[in-house]
Amino acid sequence: MPAIIDPGMITLDEAQVRRHLTYEALIPALEQALIRFSTGEITQPVRSVLPVSEYHGVFGLMPAIDGDLMGVKLVTFYHDNTTLPTHQAVIQLFSAKTGEPLATLDGRLITEMRTAAVTAIAARLFTPAKPLTLAILGSGVQARAHLQALRAVREIREVRVWSRTPAHAEAFAYETNAAPLPLAYAMRGADIVVGVSNVSHPLILGRHLSPTAFVAAIAAVGAHKREIDDEAMNASIIVESREAARRESGDIIDTGTPIYAELGEILAGKIPLPPSGRRVVYKGLGIAAEDLAAARLVYEAASS
User: Fold this and answer.
1) I need a surface site. Which of 54, 90, 209, 294 has the fewest CB within 10 A?
2) Which sequence spans correspond to the domains of the chain?
3) Local structure of residue 134 (DSSP, 8 states)
């Protein structure tokens, strides 16, 4: 692990985080973090979640320790927000050697980029290295981040977008040269299907998917939320953390579908790639190890 540079306690806002964080650096850093997590080198519990019922929000606590650095992300999710981001966060870093506070970082952009970067890592593992058709279900922040991250690892020949608000799909299409399509047509024949639309019930339906599609299901986090129907879950299921998936993924809990592997287990060579010719579903929930790896990148770059 790189040595921690200690310039004293610093604070980094979103603009400063953006200046120091790129997908080119983030993707390999997250690959290593996923490996270290799955091999037990990173310590973290499953996130704690406190409902903010009066205001229809959620407050989450995500701590982790990785070598000489430890940190905690405090994250909120308010799905009714219209003038503010639905996800907001702060990450606090500490020296694991002394417990000394090192930095406070705005965590909104880190959450955005690390989420999309891990999907890109999965896509590079589970899709062929050829021009691909991408269907994005959703048209917000994560839709844009995923398109950028996936283009960093694969050639995307066609982009399709669906949104429950057609005007948002049209705006996304105008910005990105995507094709706005109805839900079924967006998924049909797509090589990659990314679900980033806030849902509690299945949106990704097996009858619309190619048998060999790579599905990245990012949108439904919670034991009682679904975004994939039972037919689509007939696949090789990949997760970041088995423990987290068994507690936080309604898709896995409700169907009882076995987990094939953690991403880090495949990256480390402990488990082989899933059998070819079978659909792969990456159920992304986000773990603290990813936030800590991204925050380390930013902190060390800003401190150098």
Assistant:
1) 54
2) 10-110+289-303, 115-287
3) E
Reference 114, options 288, 300, 280, 279; nearest CA is 288
Name residue, tokens 């998924």.
187
**b/e burial code for range 79-96 (CB count within 10 A of at least 16 → b):** eeeeeebbbbbbbbbbeb
* H runs (alpha helix) in the chain: 14-20, 23-38, 108-126, 141-151, 166-176, 183-187, 242-248, 250-255, 263-267, 288-303
How far apart are alpha carbons 38 and 232 in whole angstroms?
Answer: 26
The residue written with tokens 């409902």 in the block is 51
Q: Is the pTM of this model over 0.90?
A: yes
Neighbours of 188 (CB within 10 A): 18
- Provide the 10 A C-beta neighbour count for residue 58: 18
Hey, which residues does 10 pair with through a beta bridge? Answer: 103
**Is 3.30.1780.10 the CATH classification of the domain at 10-110+289-303?**
yes
Report the alpha-carbon distance of residue 226 to residue 215 in Å, rounded: 14
Of the CATH numbers 3.20.20.105, 3.30.70.600, 3.40.50.720, 3.40.190.120, which one belongs to the domain with range 115-287? 3.40.50.720
